[in-house]
Amino acid sequence: MGATALILAAGEGTRMKSDLPKVAHRILGVPMVRHVVEAAHGAGCGRIVVVTGHGAGTVEALLDGVEYARQDRQLGTGHAVMCAAEVLGPLTGSLVVLSGDTPLITSGTISALVAERERHSAGATVLTAHMEDPTGYGRIVRDEADGIAAIVEQKDCDDEQVLISEVNTGTYCFDAEALLGDLDRLTTDNAQGEFYLTDVVALMREQSLAVIPVPAGDANEALGVNTRVHLAEAAKLMQRRINERHMLAGVTMTDPSLVWVGPHVELGRDVVIEPMTFVLGESRVGDGAHLGPNTRVTDSSIAEDAVVDSSILVGAEVGPGATVGPVAYLRPGALLAAKAKAGTCVEIKNSTVGEGSKVPHLSYIGDATIGSGVNVGAGSITCNYDGFEKHRTVIEDGAFVGSDTMLVAPVRIGEGAVTAAASAISRDVPPGALGIERSEQRTVDGWLARRRAGADGAGRQGSEREGE
Ligand code: UD1
Ligand code: CA
Question: Could you say which of 82, 97, 193, 293 would form a disulfide bridge with 274 (CB–CB 3.0 to 4.6 Å)?
């Protein structure tokens, strides 16, 4: 059935100096509290309850598939659990307690805490870490049998306890019944006048329940984010962790310190990512695709062997072998079919570009359906907006749109049709036809000579205007 998880996320995080609640701050595009929820989910926790309070509305809008308990005043971590007791209901088995501000915690570590508690039928297992500088953390006081006798907060430590380098990471697995039964015995009789969840340890020991320390394999997992300096440290560690996973699975990163990949991104084999490239959100990249340098991809899918150079993609779909950039902007609903091209300084929105079709230079394509084998000449744009409504442009297979064509939507260019360069096309061009809208050119013979002559004399102004 799996353990239940309780995630404490009601605190304000004063030291963040932010209008945003601490746990809503993002790492690689994902709010911290969601990283923790996902780790619990990955560990098989069937139910996840999040305690919210400060900025509850903001925090709750960031999560799906969890239950909430409300802590209106933050009277300590023990009090946060008390506030969740009603939502949790009568509970047996394992209850994992996590902090919303420890985003590096992994599913593997949570599973290990649960397994260890269940194997020993212990009152609790506590994830501990050895810190070079344990300042601010609760210290782990061991007993003769190497169990945990108590956890003592920094501010309550005596001279000897303060020297202990093993700390409480704030990640636990409890016997749910034992924990919930002990809550009404917590007091605020301590240096901070708070209900400490950590006091449950000593209470369990009084009832002869074992409390077992589980040292973290990687102390970084315990990093609690309290300031924006910590936030940046956590982001750096997560960036490295994610990039290493992808490199070991066959992705090339020429400099992984300059590549940012979100936790939900899927990358195929032999993908190459050049520096200053961000791949975030729910993005997928197929085998052999080449991204970057200087590229930002969000919530987009890029098929195998596509190339994206120095471009921005948001909610876009790029087909196999298609090429994007340099300096293209593919906005939501941009869909490039196989081997299509969105070239230099091209913006595409809510439009399909068919197989092998090319929009190579300086174009805006919005609300358009472009068939296959189409060439859109340099500087051509869809005039999709009349100031009131958006209209569609359809360009059928094999059409050739001359350079600098203004396609005034709604308009349709038929199969194999051609538009003459510099035409403003506002009426449909039937299949195979030529659409031309252009005033005739005038040629003024001998203009240069006359202009020079004019410049020597007084008539310069007049000669410049000649030809109008
Ligand atoms: C806590 C632990 C400490 C441990 C440290 C690890 C206690 C008493 N101390 O201290 O032993 O070393 O975490 O990071 O538990 N929260 C609420 N409601 C509250 C108070 C806190 O939801 O009333 C949440 C916070 O939002 C945060 C988490 O609980 O996500 C931890 O709270 P915090 O105040 O940061 O605890 P620490 O003092 O760091
Ligand atoms: Ca903390």
Answer: 293
Q: From the alpha carbon of 75, which atom of ligand 1 is closest?
A: 23
Between the CA of 225 and the centroid of ligand 2 the distance, in Å, is 6
The answer to whether residues 204 and 257 belong to one domain is: no
Q: Which domain holds residue 193?
A: 4-222
Mutate to test the pocket of ligand 1, among 20, 99, 169, 200 (most ligand atoms within 8 A of CB): 99
Q: How far is CA 262 from CA 254, 279, 317, in A?
A: 18, 6, 18
Residues 8 and 123 in one domain: yes
Report CA(224)–ligand 1 centroid distance (Å): 9
Q: Is 208 left (phi over 0), alpha (psi -120 to 50) or beta?
A: left
Residue 48 CA to ligand 1 centre (angstroms):
18
Rounded distance between C-alpha atoms, residue 105 and residue 99, angstroms: 9
* pLDDT tens-digit readout, 13-34: 999 999 999 999 999 999 999 9
308-333 per-position pLDDT tens digit: 999 999 999 999 999 999 999 999 99
How many distinct structural domains can be found in the chain?
2
| 361 given a catalytic annotation | yes
Burial class (CB in 10 A: 0-12, 13-18, 19+), 189: exposed
- Is residue 193 located within the same domain as residue 320? no
Q: Which of the ligands is closest to the CA of residue 153?
A: 1
Instruction: State whether 176 and 269 are in the same domain.
Output: no
Give Rg (Cα) of the chain. 32
Length of the chain: 468
Which pairing describes strands 94-99 and 166-175: parallel, antiparallel, or unpaired?
antiparallel
List the CATH number of the domain containing 16.
3.90.550.10
CATH code, domain with 420: 2.160.10.10
Report which bound ligand comes closest to the CA of 69.
1
Pairwise CA distance, residues 224 & 169, whole Å:
8
